[in-house]
Amino acid sequence: MPIIAPAAEWGSLSARLKAEAPEAFDSEGRVLNLMEGVWKEPGFGRHYESSIDGRSLGRIPMIDLETARTAVKFAKSEAGAWAQVELDERRRRVNECLDVLKKHKELIALLLMWEIGKPHAQAMTDIERCISGVEWYVENIEGMLGKRQPLGLISNIASWNYPMSVLMHSVLVQLLAGNTTISKTPTDGGLYALTLAHAVARRCGLPVSLVSGSGGQLSEALVRNEFVDCLAFVGGKTNGGVIASTLYDENKRYLLEMEGVNTYGVWKFSDWAGLGQQLKKGFDYGKQRCTA
Q1: Deepest in the core among 16, 61, 188, 242, taking most CB within 10 A?
Q2: Rounded to whole angstroms, how far apart are CA atoms 112 and 230?
Q3: What fold, for 6-265?
Q4: To 10 degrees, the CA torsion angle through 114, 120, 121, 125?
Q5: CB distance 168 to 128 below 8 Å
C-alpha cells in the first residue's frame, strides 16, 4: 500500500478545493460548469477516477449540445465589451489572477497528481510554466499587439496531460489580448485543477467559461459554431485534421497543435521575414542541444 501524507490525502484535498472555490460546487458536492458567467449545470455526470489507484474522484459534469450552445452564445456576448477594456486594465486583472494562482500552486499540484498521475515535481512545473509564461506576455504584449484587434471568442480544446501550462496558459494570454474564452475540460484529467483556476479567473473579472462534455457531441457548439471566432486545439492528428478541414471551409481562424507538430498551416499572415527568423532560431536551438 502506498504511504500518503495527510496533506495529500484526497479527502483533505477535495475539502480544500471546495473551500477555495465553493461557487463551483452544488449543495450535493457535485462540480459544476462555468457558463453564462456563473457556475451551474452539474450535467449527467460521468465517472471520474484517479490514474493512481482507480479511486473515484467524483463525476465529470457532462452537458449536452444545446446547453453548450447556450454557453458559447453567452461567451460571445461578452466579447464586445471586453475588447473595449484598456490593455492596462486587462493586464491588471490577469496579474491579479496570477497572484492568486501562485498562492494555490501546491494545492493545484496535488490535484494534478491525483487527476493525471503526475509526479509532484512535474505537476509543479506545469503550474510554474503557466504562470511564468503568462507573466512574459504581460510584459511584452503591447509591442506584440500593435494595431491588431481582438479576434472575439476563442474556443479552447486541449489534451489532458498539460492542463495548466497548455490550456490555462493559452486562456490567460488570449484574455490579455482582448478575447473572451470558452474551454472544454479534458475528460481524462485536469477537471479540478482547471475548475479552481477558472474560478479564480472569473473572480478577477476575466470573461472565461468552462464546460465539460464529449468532444464528438459538443463539436457543433465548440467548433462549428457561428459565435466561435477562433479555435485553439491541442490533440491528435486525426481529430485535428477533421477540425482543420471544417474550419477552413468556413474560413475560421484556428491554432492547431497535433502530436507535437506545432504548425499545421498558416493563412492570412504578413510578417514572413519575422516568421523565418523565428523558425531558424528553433532549428539552431535544436542543433545546439543535439551537439551539446
Answers
A1: 61
A2: 28
A3: Aldehyde Dehydrogenase; Chain A, domain 1 (3.40.605)
A4: 40
A5: no
Q: Is the Cα torsion angle 196, 234, 177, 248 positive or negative in sign? A: negative
Question: What residue has cell string 472555490?
Answer: 21
Q: Please name the residue that has the C-alpha cell 482547471.
A: 194
- Contact between 104 and 97 under an 8 Å Cβ cutoff? The reply is no
Render each residue's pLDDT in the chain as its tens digit; 292 residues: 566 777 788 889 999 999 999 999 999 999 999 999 999 999 998 999 988 888 999 999 999 999 999 999 999 999 999 999 999 999 999 999 999 999 999 999 999 999 999 999 999 999 999 999 999 999 999 988 988 899 999 999 988 889 999 999 999 999 999 999 999 999 889 999 999 999 999 999 999 999 999 888 898 899 889 999 998 888 777 777 677 776 666 667 777 776 665 555 566 677 888 878 877 776 664 444 444 4
C-alpha grid cell for residue 29?
Answer: 458536492
Closest CA to 188 of 57, 37, 96: 57
